[in-house]
Amino acid sequence: MSNILMIVTGATALTMKDGSQHPTGFWAEELVTAHRDLVAAGHTVTIATPGGVTPIVDAGSLEPSQTGGEAQARELAEYLDSITGQLEAAVPIADVEPADYAAIVLPGGHGPMADLAFDANVGRVLVAANEAGTVIAPFCHGPAALLSAKLADGSNAFAGRRLAVFTDEEERTGGTGENTPWWVESALRDAGAVIDPASPWSDHVVVDGNLITGQNPQSSASVARRVIEALS
User: Fold this and answer.
1) pLDDT value for 224
2) CATH number (domain holding residue 35)
3) Start and end of every DJ-1/PfpI domain (predicted)?
């Protein structure tokens, strides 16, 4: 089976348009679903964060109103508890050798908007992985990390690629709304990506060569399944 790198945000807050601090982190359902399904398929998952910090769950993502009920919230929290040691042992992205991994998975939450999108080490890993044809699978706000992947000429390594991402419409209607500091979909379009959106909150995955992307939390399991298929 394969070694998979899961790049997770280390951010705990996102500075909003009005200057306020919005508590954030990784989205529980997204990290849990991807990690659980990949491990269940026999793969080894290594978690990496900027600086090797212990990633923090977005508390809002464990609210029953967000998870679909008390039982689901409890299940997510229990799974996160079961991998506490792995989260605390997160590898610094600066130390990552991309060639060691067959796939790179990037779950969301608003955290990637605060760190992964601007992290030169994330960019280095993604550029090298993309050039090697390694599977790269960000979903929901995870594709914000693709913005860090700059080539020597300043262009984005994923310009011209088809992908899915948490849409501006979803952000306005079910995300952080008009106080959002910047729009991930729009930023990726501006960087040259070809956004292939589906209706809001639908399970939607786009595959373009080695790039597997999902639109939102509803797409988490489908992204993990496509990664598993690509590695089989």
Assistant:
1) 98
2) 3.40.50.880
3) 29-229
Per-residue pLDDT tens digits for 51-78: 999 999 999 999 999 999 999 999 999 9
The total domain count for the chain is: 1
Could you give phi then psi for residue 11, rounded to 5 degrees?
-75, 150
φ, ψ (nearest 5 deg) of residue 101? -125, 140
Inter-residue contact 30 to 105 (CB < 8 Å): no
Distance from C-alpha of 181 to C-alpha of 175, rounded to nearest angstrom: 12
Q: What is the DSSP string of 3-65?
A: EEEEE----SEEE-TTS-EEE--B-HHHHHHHHHHHHHTT-EEEEEEGGGPPP-B-GGGGSHH
Q: Round the average pLDDT of the chain to a whole number and report it.
A: 98
Average pLDDT of the residues in 70-99: 98
Tokens matching residue 95: 């130390």
**Nearest 5°: CA angle at 108, between 65 and 103?**
135
CA distance 69 to 113: 27
Give the sign of the dihedral formed by CA 193, CA 121, CA 216, CA 132. positive
Structure tokens at 89: 């042992």
User: For residue 131, what is the enclosing H or E element?
Assistant: helix 120-132
